Amino acid sequence: LGFVREGGQRAGRLIDNLVAFAQLDAYETSPEAVDIAQVMRQVKESLEPMLLQTRGRIETGPLPVVTGDARLLHQALHNLVANALAFARRDVPPVVKVVASQDATVDQIHVCDNGIGIAEEHQSAIFDVFSRLNNRRQHDGTGLGLAICQRIADLHQGRLSVESQAGEGSRFTLHLPVVGERN
Questions:
Q1: Nearest Cα residue to 139 out of 121, 153, 126, 120
Q2: How many Cβ atoms are within 10 Å of 82's Cβ, its own excluded?
């Protein structure tokens, strides 16, 4: 019975993620000023149960106000931080650092972790739909989270990149073009 319930829950998460991914194709962004520090406070609050379960923590540096769709940026950062917490090394409490860098044309939001990392040969495939590198027993997921994040970056005319080393952690960077003039 537990196996059936677990399978039903997994199917439900998959359907939810498929719907979220499909809806992005028809989604009309609402660009506005988005305070990434405020978004991260909301993300941290929503992930509090996961933080307690993993004994993890989220650290943030100064974060910018960017132009984008607040709902989508929240979704992308929530997915990236949740992944960072989920893909922790065994017996090592996860630490996720969210920091930013800027130049005249691009705002970059970096989500860095001390997790299991991603081997270089697998890094190009992780943004593909249904891409899973790990055993479901070790790391639950649908294989859609990073594809959703990539699509959100695309909707902002930006991109998502990764730098990672197996066993040492990862840094995902959301590159968002600056809209208008920087003050």
A1: 126
A2: 17
**Tens of pLDDT, residues 56-88:** 999 999 999 999 999 999 999 999 999 999 999
Element (H, E) at 152: helix 145-155
Cβ(96)–Cβ(85) under 8 Å? Answer: yes
What would the two tokens of residue 118 be? 């991603």
- Cα–Cα distance between 177 and 66 in angstroms, integer? 9
Confirm if 171 and 81 have CB atoms less than 8 A apart.
Answer: no
Tokens of 97: 């650092």
Task: State percent of the chain over pLDDT 90.
Answer: 58
d(CA 101, CA 106): 8
User: What local confidence, expressed as pLDDT, does residue 148 receive?
Assistant: 87
What integer is the mean pLDDT of 22-42? 84
pTM over 0.85: no
CA distance 62 to 75: 20
In the beta sheet, which residues pair with residue 173? 110, 161
**How is residue 5 written in tokens?**
């319930």
Burial 97-118 (b: 16+ CB within 10 A, else e): bbbbeeeeeebbbbbbbbbbbb
